[in-house]
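Appendix C reproduces, verbatim, an entry submitted by the partner laboratory led by Prof. M.T., so that reviewers can inspect both the input and the predicted structure.
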Amino acid sequence: MSGWWKSLQVGFTFIGTVVGAGFASGKEVMQFFTRFGQWSPLLILCATLFFVWIGSKIMLLAAEMKAASYEDLNKHLFGDKIGRGVSLVMLFVLLAVNAVMLAGAGSIFSEHLNLSYQSGLLITMFACFVLLRKGISAIMTINTLVVPIMILFTAILVFDTLGSPGHGRWMSFETDASLWAAGLSPFLYAAFNLSMAQAVLVPLGSSIGDPRVLRRGAWLGGIGIGLLLFAGHVTLAARMPGVERFDIPMAGIAREFGAWIHWIYVLLIFSEIFTTLVADIFGLTVQLQERMRIPRSILTAGLLIVCFGVGQFGFGPLLSTLYPLFGMLSLGWLFLMGRDRALGNGSPPAAPPTP
């Protein structure tokens, strides 16, 4: 049972790292899946297979190589020289994405809690710094708490949707979006999220080391991500096209349930931003420790200060500029992960072993 509990923690950490604020807001589900109408369930299934397959390979490779950080994985994929360059690019991009997360936390404080934007940044930075002093175990613990809340909230919305007149629209909703864009969508979504998630999946796989635990965790996490994507799609599709007018679609839906559900939603958005920020700052700190002989706490504080500076540009401008660019850059990385032969024949992982 201890092995299964650890696998569940791995799965929750996988889900919490991938399914961040973009999912909780409904924006990512709308952009990558729901807008493609009746094709969406197939696209979600495709993305789910990638999460199980590539997520498993990342963690198993990290365990096999005893990789200290994602740079070790990139050196394996691209070679020593190019791998260093790719890791350096990823360091700056991940740092920018963390600035987006921190800016999002500041926006929540200013828009929903009647506190200043700067107060939101500083409070979030302090909480992140304190938590990261406990290492990878703290990341697993916080995701074990946050992810079930997210699942519960999503389940409430889905059950309400199943009783609405438009509950079956996810099967019949038509779209004029191009088939080419639909076919590319799950690759972009998986590439973007998995390349970011390796910052925590690599040290997670290396620290646990047990292939059985990691395989089960990859299956639990990957399937969990797929089910959450599908649940979000069903909820959004039932309210199309009206829900498209909202910048944060799930917020518009949450208001249908009254004030207390709205506050749960606000807490959920902040929690997802916070877990993503904590996981990525941890991965970047581990990465920089390989390059610099500086204490971890000083590196963590330095990264948070840089994010604070970049976060002054605001959540919206940073999100719209950086995310699409990183998605395109990540496609090559996803291709190399898929064709890597270090774990047997490069095929998707076998079913999780029985205890």
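The chain has one domain: 2-339. Additional entries are available on request from the coordinating office.
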